[in-house]
Amino acid sequence: MTVSLRQLEYFVAVVDTGSFTQAAADLHVSQPGLSNQIQSLERQLGGPLLERLTRGVRLTPAGRIVLPHARASLAHAERARTAGLRAAGVDAGELHVGTLYSLSVGILPAALKAWRTTYPDVAVRLVEFRHTDDLIAAMEAGRADVAVGPTPPDWTGPLREIGAEAFWLAGPPGAFPEPRRTVELGELADSPWVHFTPPSGLADILDAACQSAGFTPHAAVRTEQSSSALNLARAGLGITLVPGNVIPAHFDGSLAEPSPPVLRPLSVYTRTRPDPITAAFIDAIADETLANPGHLEPPYRP
After folding, report:
1. Domain check: are 138 and 199 in the same one?
2. What does the pLDDT average to over 84-94?
3. For 169-196, what is each residue's pLDDT tens digit?
4. In this structure, are 220 and 233 located in the same domain?
5. Residue-number span of the structural domain to which 251 is assigned
6. pTM, entire model
7. Residue 148 bridge partners (DSSP)
8. Quick check: is 302 in a domain?
């Protein structure tokens, strides 16, 4: 007897609600019927997945192992259903967009807004990562329909290049006195840096840029977010290096272009030939880049 999607759905629902009673109510099934399905699943897997408590439930060690696989199976089943509907010409389901946290501003919001005017009934789920390798791995595993991110090396599926994102140096007011617009990275070898917490694609880019200039940056502060790095640099805690698209128009610290320039090629890519809905999203990204090249060009300068 094979494990069914219904059994996995019931198991996940009990975990998420913490209650057999609430899970049954949410699924519109009887509690005895739900309990029977869970017990059948446990028999098939050779042991208990849930520990029944006076109030609620708790995962057993086996349950903790099974849970992520159950979630993944349900997600893949839903993706398969959506793919079938789209192939039949039905606008349905969710569009899963994989990207990096640092790219969730700038081009993505505008492109999504334009795309949703054509597909208002299709929801969007952003699947965001801190590192390019994680984004690529998620795409290879089928966790997203389309990715917007740094151009992956040796990608074998469909890919459209959309330009190169420029990185900029940011610091407190007066750190890069006007009229200077560029700063040799080597001049900042002794400066404190607002760095990024590894593993992070932004940390890798900052390290590589500084190492190419002949030094290892001294991290005075580390953060996970580019927006936090900007605020910390503005406050005088160090120099940072961030993508131009995350620098807001109201930023009143100092900005300078690093020399040599630090650029990150960006692409939109999929595993297989995109369906019409996904293809329209890719077109929206490309159109937005052409219509508003400022997403990939030098940021606003105070």
Report:
1. no
2. 63
3. 999 998 887 766 889 999 999 999 999 9
4. yes
5. 164-264
6. 0.66
7. 99, 268
8. no
Tokens of 85: 């509907």
The answer to whether residue 301 sits within a structural domain is no
As given in the structure block, the two tokens for residue 290 are 């052409």
Strand-pair partners of 165: 264
Do 150 and 241 contact (CB within 8 A), yes or no?
no
Structural domain contains residue 245: yes
257: Cα separation from own chain's centroid: 26
Whether residue 177 sits in one domain with residue 35: no
300, part of any domain = no
> Sorting pLDDT into bands at 50, 70 and 90, what band is 295?
low
What gap in Å lies between CA 238 and CA 226, rounded to an integer? 14
CB 123 within 8 A of CB 95: yes
Q: How far apart are CA 152 and CA 225, in angstroms?
A: 22
How many domains, in total, are found in the chain?
A: 3
pLDDT digits (tens, 9 = 90+) for 213-225: 999 999 999 998 8
- The DSSP-derived string for 72-137 is HHHHHHHHHHHHHHHHTT---SEEEEEEEGGGTTTHHHHHHHHHHTT-TTSEEEEEEESSHHHHHH
Q: Which residue has the tokens 């128009």?
A: 249
Q: Are both 68 and 192 inside the same structural domain?
A: no
What are the pLDDT digits (tens) for 42-74?
A: 999 988 999 888 788 889 999 999 998 888 888
If asked whether residues 242 and 174 sit together in one domain, one would say: yes
> Which residue has tokens 């910390």?
232
51 and 100 housed in the same domain = no
